[in-house]
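Q: You know discrete backbone vocabularies at least as well as I do. I have my own habits and do not want them to colour yours. No explanation is needed for now; the record alone will do.
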Amino acid sequence: MKFLLHLKRGSILLAVLVLFLLLALFVTTRGPHRGTSIDITFPEPGKWGQVNQLEVGVGVRDITPQIELYDSWVDEDGDGAFDPDIDQYQDKNGNGTFDLIWLAGFGNKRAAQGIHDPLWARAIAFKNNGAIIVLVSIDSIGITHDRYLDIRERLVEEAPHITHVSFAATHTHNAPDTIGLWSYKEFIGRKFDDGYIAYLQDQVFESILESVSQLVPAKTVLAEAEVPMENFTHDSRPPVVVDKKLPVAL
């Protein structure tokens, strides 16, 4: 009888623990924007309205890290990767940590030594029939959804006339880690650069506002050409399926 009693109590405790873990998982994985939703309304067929004069605007902001704010280092063994046991770095702010720009992709020991080319946030705005849609391209490995939502909610407050914004990253592997896969290594002195994230978000926000402020009447030209593969695209398995057409919108 005692065994059955203990088994019953153990089962109850286990069930409570599982429910608690599920609740904790539900709460902690929902992110900071739990009440955010996208309002998408599609007109009924035949009620799209007349297409009026299209307006287009462009906004650009530099999102290159301000390298003077970071430590510099010397690649002693020339392997392109930072090794704290071999390579030397200059602790500019004297805080005893490696305040380096950790690059995204191709391994987790790549720290920037300088700037080869600038990084950009480019926005293009379209306006027609009172609706404003902005497309944004960001030179980044990728940005998590919650950080996009930070920008969206700021736009709702400061620029409610913008109907919708869509973001895309170029997925470059020569930009700072904006996800956290290559810099969350506290035990060897690395840290995720929240300061750069805030800077990037501000610059993206400004590029969006600039694109809308530059809206002017425009004409659209759609063109398409067939281009050779030029060793850019491959299909290694038969049947070979490659789209050789290059569509362009001007």
Q: What stands out?
A: Residues 55-217 form one domain. The longest strand covers residues 120-128. The chain has a mean pLDDT of 84. The CA atoms of residues 64 and 119 lie 5 Å apart.
